[in-house]
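Handout, section B. The chain below has 258 residues.
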Amino acid sequence: MTVELNFTKYGDIHEPLLILHGLFGSARNWHGVAKQLAERYTVYTLDLRNHGSSPHADDMDYASMSADVSAFMARQNLTSATVIGHSMGGKVAMELALSDSSKVNKLVVVDIAPVVYKHNFDDVLVGLYHVPVDTVSSRKDADAYLAEKVKDVGLRQFLLQNLVTNTAGGYQWRVNLASIEENMPDIMGFSSKNDRAYSGRTQFIKGGKSTYLASRYKGTALNMFPNAEFKTIDQSGHWPHIESPQKFMATLDQFLAA
């Protein structure tokens, strides 16, 4: 069963472009990029299921998340769109292109490959569960608890975007931690059906300091996306759109304009 995804829309006169965020992210992570792209596209940034302001759900495999995006497109009367996806959102975008290529005009995949990863984000989940959201009195207090398990300041700031106030005046995580934890094998996985391919124009953008889009995955990616090009943004890690925004936009613009 699909869920109705929350979204933010930028512009209203050009061809559509969808942006799909990564694990523990949300639509608002892409505000800066969407604002720039809105000069040439009608941009939709989506909250994927169990993230942001979208509904929670028990299932979280890529077939389900791709179906959510397809249903969103149907509600918006979009027959096709250019699709950009980062990390988990990149896998959703790839699944959409592979399962129904007619819906995807161009595909941009940011720092992820169509492979199974061993990393399971246990350290992040432990950190988020460690924060006593029912009793913390401020975001600063929450950060202090999170810092005991997650040392990277930038990662903590990213994760704390998911801490929101509730109707009782306290705090809660807006991500569905229980479902994410239960579905982590699916989130880290990807279907390896040999008969699936998307022949449309595709760009893979790698963060130079990241290992998510390692060179050993290029062959697998080309088997599924034979018309793909690969670009590296040298000084960035897993979030090139945040860490190297100007180089990221230049790389993206060159591909989209061709």
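Note. The mean pLDDT is 95. Compare this with the example in section A.
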